[in-house]
Amino acid sequence: MPQCGIGKVELRTRPACDVNGCVAMKRILVAVDASPNAIAVLDAGVDLARQSGAKVLLLRAVAMPPEPLLASGFVAPPGELVDSFIVTAKHDLAELAERVPADLLEGATAQVGVAWEAICSHARDHDVDMIVIGSHDYRLIDRIIGTTAAKVVNHADRPVLVVRPKEAA
After folding, report:
1. Distance between alpha carbon 78 and the CA centroid of its chain, in Å?
2. How far apart, in whole angstroms, are the C-alpha atoms of residue 133 and residue 111?
C-alpha cells in the first residue's frame, strides 16, 4: 500500500487515481480554530495537498457563545458579538492563508455554526476529498459530550485526518 510522506499517514489508492504513490485528490478541507495547533493542522493539509495534487480550502467555524456567558456581562447584542468573532476569524484565516502557496489555495471561509456540523457541511458542499482537522487535549466536558474532531470523524462522509498536537519535549 502506498504511503505519503507526512508522518504516519497512509492513503488507500483508488483505481486510476494514483499520482507519485499518493491518491490524487482535487480538494482538501483544512478546518482550523484559534488554537496553537492550527499551524500544524494547516502544514499537514498543505503537505498532503502537495503530495496528492489537491487544492486547499481553509475553514474556520465560529459558534455563538453559550447563553450563561452572554448573560454574564457582555454589553454587545448577540449579533454584534458574532460579527466581531467573524471579523477576528477572517483575520486569523488571512494570516494562515499566507502560509499556503498561492497555487494550492482555493479559498478561505469563516462562517457561523456548530463547528463539527459546519465542517461536515462545508466538505459536502465543496465536494472535498479529505478533511484535515486538529485535536486537543481532553477535558472532562469533552469526555461527556465529545470533541469536535471526534464528531467530525463520526459524522463525515469522507476521510478525515486528525492532527494531534506535538508533545512538549
Report:
1. 25
2. 16
Dmax of the chain from CA atoms? Answer: 58
Q: What length is written for the chain?
A: 169
For residues 26 and 55, the answer to whether their CB atoms sit within 8 Å is yes
pLDDT, residue 80, reads 75
- Which domains occur in the chain, in start order? 25-163 (3.40.50.620)
Q: Identify the band that residue 15 occupies on the pLDDT scale cut at 50, 70 and 90.
A: very low
CA 12-57-54 angle, to 5 degrees, is 40
Q: Which helix (H) or strand (E) segment is 118 a member of?
A: helix 115-125
Would you state the pLDDT for residue 29?
Answer: 98
Cα separation, 67 vs 71, in Å, equals 6
Name which of 72, 71, 61 is nearest 31 in CA terms: 61
Among candidates 116, 117, 136, 151, which has minimal Cα distance to 41?
136
